[in-house]
Specification:
Blueprint (H helix, E strand, L loop, with lengths): L8 E7 L2 E7 L5 E8 L6 E5 L2 E6 L3 E6 L4 E6 L3 E7 L2 E6 L3 E5 L11 E6 L15
Antiparallel strand pairs: 1-2, 2-3, 4-5, 5-6, 6-7, 8-9, 9-10, 10-11
Protein name: SHKB1 protein
GO biological process, one term: positive regulation of epidermal growth factor receptor signaling pathway
InterPro entries: SHKBP1/KCTD3 (IPR047876), WD40_repeat_dom_sf (IPR036322)
Length: about 130
Amino acid sequence: GGALGDHDKMVAAASCTEIILWALQADGNGNEIGVFHLGVPVEAIFFVGNQLIATSHTGKIGVWNAVTKHWQIQDVVPINSYDAAGTFLLLGCNNGSIYYKFPLRMKDNDLLVTELYRDPTEDAVTALSVYLT
């Protein structure tokens, strides 16, 4: 709901490097919002707030924002794990880093994927769990 209309639902599917996003209305009608390309194989897609997130173990993250209707891709190091809570996304990477992503910054559309922590021995972060109170 929200940016697409109070009764809209979004559905996404990925195959290889492409993500297809649809809006479905309560009456059963729907329309394709767009086809987005990550450029590398997509391992996971999920919604975090009003954003569709696509990740690849190769180290790419793609974000489609329902408010700005803008698709962006950012490179990070190879991703091993992730978890989301509220509007925050955490990425566990193979170099021991944990990155976090805030909602899209509206003034310049920056994805704001920022390193939160890096293990001094660079052991891979293989699992994450987030709980916000």
